[in-house]
Structures are given as structure tokens and as C-alpha cells.
Design brief:
The complex is a heterodimer of chains A (about 375) and B (about 475). Chain A is an alpha/beta fold. Helices cover about 40% and strands about 15% of the residues of chain A. In chain B, a hairpin with a 2-residue loop joins β6 and β7. The chains are: A alpha/beta (about 375), B alpha/beta (about 475). At the A-B interface, α5 and α6 of A face α9 and α10 of B.
Chain lengths: ~375, ~475
């Protein structure tokens, strides 16, 4: 059933939103929000962020396949063409290498492009421009060439889209000095981090998630203000706890929160950290949390080897070794190209039960 | 079949003139009626019937008249497809893979440095000509001495532009200082023209603390934003779509400037060549693409690089105006680049220039080209087809240059470069702080910590570091 319901998420995006909303209400009441009655979907959050930044700075422009006339492959850039015209909302021919190169060149010359990849899987065709040009130019030119560019788009698994549309690129981009890599979860994250990314003078890789686009989150008045911005490099503690630290990012934050609910029923207080920023990684927050709980479970959707979790484990073992009461645990996607069949896909991705099991193991509550 | 066709064509023609239905078949807003099918056309009577019936729907567009009369000679009917109207033919004819005649090469000076009669060219004043020649000679001396320095082990690597001095200097002379240059790596002459000093070149090659590039890059990867010359980047052809982006930025800011980018014959095989040219055309960006077709991509000869007639023919495939020029003729290069630049800026369009030349030197100091090409081929181009000598003859014939001037410029350049090298070699390398700066706009905390950690380590264990190690 999970598989069938999952598939409908691709078309309407409604499934995840509606089922999770039931659990979300309980979380909302558990947290205290200032005037938290307003809600916003991640899609609208991203759209409003781009809109406001384009309005504030005439150098900001959007580029990508289908971003203009089609209103965006996932409707993130809806309405922008009408508002800002074809010069600032540019529909590109199909060549990731081409339009990424153009974006980098435009950034070299002082414009602020927001380049959309239909999915970061397609960014592979442009990765030389992102890494060898965008990431390294400031350093190689000794500060003469700045690249104030933002690359954004869906990253990681969607539902039933197979191997070439499901890979998570957080670890790939986060390993490169010169880039900043962000991964929002909630609508507030989406707004604040995308605004920060567009304003940032360095190249930023902004990893969204297709299944989160349709999800609604409560949003504060402060976050709705056009000057709102979140700091890059700061993680957010989504839920406090004293027994085990669970770190994760993007869609897995939702899973971790659900797992935390289940663990709470069994008397285990899990502290859920939403990384928000993969590079720079907020090692301070992570380590402070582990020093408090003494146990670490890190979760990611991507492949296990050389992943974001591996980096977090290394950081914690290096800096907080004597505080650990249990071995660090990593939960990642299966070490296989993503299969298409719904049941196999489910098995290839971390599920709430996996997080609960790992947390219990860390607390010596199970084998 | 052919006879019938010509008869029906004549009928169409005469009918059109008699009935004054100039645009009947070439209407712009033709959508409701489908185009004639072949079967319809094969019937003469249907033709006539259709004419009379369409008469009512004809919205003669005066502008189309030229089109109609022109296409009447070849294709009397036109078909409507996405992308516009296209004439049709029932003769199955493939466009040949190459035309019988290669695209001719534009040149102004003959091999003896004399202006070919009736040449089209933009005149060059004495002052400009002398300045161009001095720079070509300086570039030659610079290439020679730096190459030797590498051979002596004083620098790790070098790339010369021997044989391509005319392309380097004449193109730079034809541009305005506001034009943004995205080089490949064989265009130091452009930077030299714009005012980068010999000392600055030497500093970059030695990667010392005075290097504007802070010792971050291999030799010859110069860059200077003061001179609107982007830092050389090693991956081939990435500068092409980037140039389209720079052009787009200049267009949006309505600047009186264009982007100028260089590429070799080999680089045109990269995917970025296609993306860059296609995009620049679609975006109507002011970009001048200059391809230095020097015959060799390391050891790959152009016959193994492409099967087209060089690169100039590719321009039209992208809808880009193109020209083939004798890259060893400084006056031709100057005129072509100057005109291309004006077109790019005034008409807001990309232009492609293929400059034919020969790579006299090795690909780089890591290459020995005698291993894959004949030594006498290299000699021939070095001696008999030398662009510097050719331009010198013209400048001398005009009475603007003498033997004395020649020895003066060469000895001065030699002296300056040797001094620059000696100084650059002696100066310290960049301090430790430059290891961690410019990764980001503002140094992040983790790098600050690493820098501090490294400083402490150097202070604690000085024996592990060379004496006088600069922090």
C-alpha cells in the first residue's frame, strides 16, 4: 500500500502532505510558534523567496529548462516570467553544460544567476562548470573572479523515477571547497536558506526535494518578511532530547521526527538536528548535542560510502570520542542504483522503522 | 515530369501577376488551410481551382513579394512547419558533406609583407602599427626566454604562442579595453597588449608573493580583472558558454562592450563549443568567438579532429556570421576582429572568426612535437611563414621601422625579461595565510581554525619547515 500511495505523490504531491499533516498537527502543538497559524508549502516558500530576491536586486535572474513559459517543471518559478520578463526568467535550450557555463560566465561578469536543474541528476552533465569553474575560480584567480551563483533543483529520490533520477548529490558537492551546499526541509528553511543562497557572493548548491514541494509547514511572521534570511552553516535543533542525537537533512528530517515520536512512546528522548547546511557543516551544534546525549545516529537518503553521514561520524569520533557511550550509527540508502519497482524502492531507502531501530540499538534497548 | 513542373510554375507566375495575388501561397497567417499536399499539386486543374478559391483568403503581404519572386525560380510552393516556412523540392538531393571549394581565407598582406591590391582593410596608423610590431617582437622574446627558463628547471611549465603572434597582438589591438576576454591559454599577447607587465608575467610563472594570482595556479594561467582578462582555466572550451554568459550580462547592462573568447581547433570538438555558440546565437549575445586553427591539438592533427572544412563552416550551422582569416597576417586579423567586434556590439549578435595559422612551438614544455610531425614542416612555418617577419616587412617598407629599432626592441625586451625572471625567482613565495584565503568570499570558521592550527604547528616544529618559512 505504501508503494501505491507513494506513486500518487509524483502526480499530485498530495499524499505525503495529507498523511503527514495528521502527525504534523501533534508536532505543531508540541512546539511553540509565534503566531503559528499561517502555513506555506515548500513550493510557495521557494517561489516567494526567488520573487523577493529578484525584486530587491535587478542583477538576479533565473535560468533553466522550462522555468519561464511552462512556469517551472515543478512550478517553483510560477508567475516569474510574467512579472519580470524573458530577459530575467530565461528558458534555456537543453544543455546543462551550456546553461551552467553561461550562468558561470554571467556571474563572472557581475550578474547573479539562479540556475535551475530539473533534477541534480542532470547536473552531472554540467559538473565541470560547477566544480572547476564556479567553485574554484575565486581561489584560482586570487579573489579577482567572484561567482555569486546559486544552483538549485530537486535532489535525491522522488517516487518511482529509477536510478538516473534518484541519486542524492549532497556528498559529492559538499566535498568541494569553494562551494556552499544547503539542504532545506521546512518552508521556513526553504525561504530563509534560498534567500541566503541568492545573496551569498560564493557559489551555492541548493538541494531541494521533489516530494517536499507540496508539503505545508507552519510559518512565522518573521519568516514571511522579505528581509528574512537564515544563516548559512547553522543547523537547527528541530526537537530536543537527552538520550540520542539524530542528525539528518531534507526529507529525512520528517522521518526522523516521526521516529522521535515513536521513540518518545518508549521513553527514549531523541534530539533531532536538521543540518540545513551540508557545507559548511555545523560541527559545533552536532558535537554539543552528542556531548549531551552520548549517542549518535546519522541519517541520509544517499549512498552510504563517502556520504554526509560518514563525515559526521568522523567529526564526532574525532572531537567527542570520550563522550560516546555507544558506537556511532549511520543510516543511508542501499548501496545500489535506485530500482524502479515500488517495493524495491522502499527497501532501498531509509524508513522510519530503520531510524527507530538504530536509535534503540544505540541506547542498548535492542540487539 | 520536369517539363510539366515548369509549365505549372509559369501558370502560377502569370496567374499571380494577372490576379495580383502576390501573397496567395505565402501568406503569413495561413493556419486554417493546410499546405498543399504533393498529390494536390500533381494535378494541374487542382492548382487552378485552389488559386481561385484561395483568392478570397489571400491576404497579400507586400513584404513577401520578394520572397515569392525569389523562390519562384526554385521552389514555387512553401511548406509551413514549426520553425517557419520552407520551400520544398521533389528532387531527392543530399547536401554534400563538403562544398567543392573551401571557404576562402581573408588576407591583406602577401607573404612579402606587401598589401595585395584592391584589399578591403581598415587602415592602421604608424603609431598603432609600430606598437603592434613591438608587442609581437616582445612576445617572441618572452616566449623564447620563458621556454628556456623551464628547460633550465627554473619554472615548472610553460606554453608558448610561437607562430601565433599576429593573432595574439592584432586581435588585442582591434578590441576596446572594455571588451571582456575569456582566453584559452595561448593568448598571453592579449594580456601583454593590455598592459600586464613582463614582471607580472614572471611573477605568475614563479608563483611568488608578488604574483597577482597569489601562487594559486600553474605557469601561464594568468588573469587580471584590471585588464578585463579572465584567469586562464585548464578545462578546454569551458570558456565558450561562459563567454555567452558574459555577453548576456553585457547585453542586459547595455554596455558598449562585447565578450571575446579564444579556442583552438581541438577545443571545437568539445560539447561546450556547441553549447556556447548555439546559446550565444539564441540569446543574441555580443560575443566574438576566435578560433585559432593552428593545425594541431597536441599530437592530433586537424584531419583527425573534424571532417568539416575547418571551423568557419560551423558558424552557419548555429546561425552565426563567420569569416576565415589568415591568422598570420596581422592586418587581416586586425580588420576582421575590429569589424566583428563592431557587429557584435552594434547588432548584438555573436560572430565567429577562424584564424588559420600554425603552431610552430610544441604544445607545451611537456611535449616534444618532433615525435609526431616532421621537423622540416616546423622549420618551414617558422622561417618562411613567420607572421612577425611578414608584418615587419610591411612596417619597414612604410619607413616606420629600421634595423636599429629592431635590435633595440629585442635587446630591451630580452634585458627586461631576464631581469624580471631573476627578480621573480629570488622573491619569496606567498605566505601561509594565502593558502586559506579566497576559498570563499569571507574566510569560514573551519579554515580560520585550520590556519591557526597550522601556524601553531610551524612555530612548534620549525625543524620540519624550511628556514625563513613565511607565515
Amino acid at each position: 500500500m505504501w508503494g501505491i500511495l507513494r506513486r500518487s505523490a509524483v502526480d499530485g504531491g498530495g499524499f505525503s502532505a495529507s498523511s503527514l499533516r495528521r502527525t504534523r498537527f501533534s508536532l505543531v502543538s508540541a512546539r511553540s510558534y509565534a503566531a503559528g497559524s499561517k502555513e506555506m508549502t515548500v513550493r510557495d516558500a521557494l517561489n516567494s523567496a526567488i520573487d523577493e530576491e529578484m525584486s530587491a536586486d535587478p542583477k538576479v535572474f533565473v535560468m533553466g529548462e522550462e522555468v519561464g513559459q511552462y512556469q517551472g517543471a515543478y512550478k517553483i518559478t510560477k508567475g516569474l516570467l510574467e512579472k519580470y520578463g524573458p530577459e530575467r526568467v530565461y528558458d534555456t535550450p537543453i544543455t546543462e553544460a551550456g546553461f551552467t557555463g553561461i550562468g558561470v560566465g554571467a556571474a563572472y561578469a557581475g550578474l547573479k544567476p539562479v540556475v535551475e536543474f530539473m533534477t541534480f541528476n542532470f547536473s552531472m552533465q554540467a559538473i565541470d562548470h560547477i566544480i572547476n569553474s564556479a567553485a574554484k575560480s575565486n581561489y584560482m584567480s586570487a579573489g579577482q573572479i567572484n561567482v555569486p551563483i546559486a544552483f538549485r533543483g530537486p535532489n535525491g529520490a522522488a517516487a518511482g523515477v529509477g536510478a538516473q533520477h534518484s541519486q542524492c548529490y549532497a556528498a559529492w558537492y559538499a566535498s568541494v571547497p569553494g562551494l556552499k551546499v544547503l539542504a532545506p526541509y521546512s518552508a521556513e528553511d526553504a525561504r530563509g536558506l534560498l534567500k541566503a543562497a541568492i545573496r551569498d557572493p560564493d557559489p551555492v548548491v541548493f538541494l531541494e526535494n521533489e516530494l517536499l514541494y507540496g508539503e505545508s509547514f507552519p510559518i512565522s511572521e518573521e519568516a514571511l518578511d522579505s528581509s528574512f534570511c537564515l544563516p548559512i552553516g547553522k543547523a537547527k535543533i528541530e526537537r530536543e532530547g537527552k538520550d540520542v542525537t539524530i542528525t539528518t537533512f531534507s526529507k529525512m528530517v520528517g522521518f526522523a521526527l516521526k521516529a522521535a515520536e515513536k521513540l518518545a512512546e518508549e521513553g527514549i528522548g531523541a534530539e533531532v538536528i536538521n543540518l540545513r547546511s551540508i557545507r559548511p557543516l555545523d560541527r559545533a551544534t552536532i558535537n554539543a548535542s552528542v556531548r549531551k546525549t552520548s549517542r549518535l545516529v546519522t541519517v541520509e537518503e544517499g549512498f552510504p560510502q563517502h556520504g554526509v553521514c560518514a563525515e559526521i561520524c568522523a567529526s564526532v569520533v574525532e572531537e567527542s570520542f570520550s563522550y560516546l557511550d555507544a558506537p556511532v550509527a549511520r543510516i543511508a540508502g542501499a548501496d545500489v542504483p535506485m530500482p524502479y519497482a515500488a517495493n524495491l524502492e522502499r527497501l532501498a531507502l531509509p524508513q522510519v522503522e530503520d531510524i527507530v531501530r538504530a536509535a534503540k540499538r544505540a541506547c542498548y534497548r535492542s540487539k | 515530369m520536369a517539363i510539366w513542373f515548369s509549365r505549372s510554375r509559369n501558370i502560377v507566375f502569370s496567374l499571380r501577376h494577372n490576379l495580383n495575388l502576390s501573397g496567395i501561397l505565402i501568406k503569413r497567417d495561413y493556419s486554417p488551410r493546410p499546405a498543399f499536399t504533393n498529390s494536390q499539386l500533381s494535378s494541374k486543374s487542382v492548382c487552378l481551382d485552389s488559386f481561385t478559391s484561395l483568392r478570397h483568403e489571400s491576404t497579400a503581404v507586400e513584404k513577401q513579394l520578394d520572397l515569392v519572386q525569389q523562390s519562384d525560380e526554385e521552389d514555387p510552393q512553401e511548406l509551413n512547419f514549426p520553425g517557419g516556412k520552407v520551400g520544398y523540392t521533389s528532387e531527392m538531393k543530399f547536401i554534400p558533406e563538403s562544398s567543392s571549394l573551401r571557404v576562402p581565407c581573408y588576407r591583406v598582406l602577401d607573404e612579402d609583407g606587401r598589401i595585395i591590391s584592391n584589399s578591403d582593410y581598415i587602415p592602421v596608423s604608424e603609431k598603432l602599427a609600430v606598437r603592434m610590431y613591438e608587442h609581437m617582437a616582445t612576445l617572441q622574446v618572452m616566449d623564447h626566454i620563458f621556454y628556456e627558463a623551464q628547460r633550465q628547471g627554473r619554472i615548472s611549465f610553460f606554453i608558448t604562442a610561437v607562430g601565433e603572434e599576429a593573432i595574439n597582438i592584432a586581435s588585442a589591438a582591434a578590441l576596446s579595453p572594455d571588451d571582456v576576454v575569456l582566453p584559452q591559454y595561448r593568448e598571453p599577447g592579449v594580456l601583454l597588449w593590455r598592459g600586464f607587465t613582463l614582471q607580472e608575467f614572471a611573477n605568475q610563472c614563479f608563483g611568488n608573493k608578488a604574483d597577482r594570482g597569489k601562487g594559486r595556479q600553474m605557469p601561464v594561467h594568468y588573469g587580471s580583472n584590471r585588464h578585463n582578462f579572465f584567469t586562464v582555466s585548464s578545462p578546454i572550451a569551458t570558456q565558450l558558454p561562459q563567454a555567452a554568459g558574459v555577453g548576456y550580462s553585457l547585453k542586459m547592462e547595455k554596455k558598449n562592450a562585447c565578450a571575446v573568447t579564444f579556442i583552438g581547433d581541438g577545443g571545437t570538438s568539445e560539447g561546450d563549443f556547441h553549447a556556447g555558440l548555439n546559446f550565444a546565437a539564441v540569446m543574441e549575445a555580443p560575443v566574438v568567438f576566435i578560433c585559432r586553427n593552428n593545425g594541431w591539438a597536441i599530437s592530433t592533427h586537424i584531419s583527425e579532429q573534424f571532417r568539416s572544412d575547418g571551423i568557419v563552416v560551423k558558424g552557419q550551422a548555429y546561425g552565426i556570421r563567420s569569416i576565415r582569416v589568415d591568422g598570420n597576417d596581422a592586418l587581416a586579423v586586425y580588420s576582421a576582429v575590429r569589424s566583428a567586434r563592431e557587429m557584435a556590439v552594434k547588432e548584438q549578435r555573436p560572430v565567429l572568426i577562424e584564424a588559420m595559422t600554425y603552431r610552430v612551438g610544441h604544445h607545451s614544455t611537456s611535449d616534444d612535437s618532433t615525435k609526431y610531425r616532421a621537423a622540416d614542416e616546423i622549420q618551414y612555418w617558422k622561417m618562411s611563414r613567420n607572421p612577425v617577419n611578414r608584418f615587419r616587412k610591411w612596417v619597414e617598407d612604410n619607413g616606420w621601422w629600421s634595423e636599429e629599432d629592431e635590435s633595440k626592441i629585442r635587446s630591451n625586451a630580452r634585458k627586461q625579461i631576464l631581469q624580471a625572471i631573476q627578480a621573480a625567482e629570488k622573491w619569496d613565495k606567498p605566505p601561509l595565510t594565502e593558502l586559506f584565503s579566497d576559498v570563499y568570499d569571507v574566510k569560514p570558521k573551519n579554515l580560520e581554525e585550520q590556519e591557526l592550527g597550522l601556524k601553531e604547528l610551524v612555530e612548534k616544529q620549525p625543524q620540519d619547515y624550511p628556514p625563513g618559512f613565511q607565515i
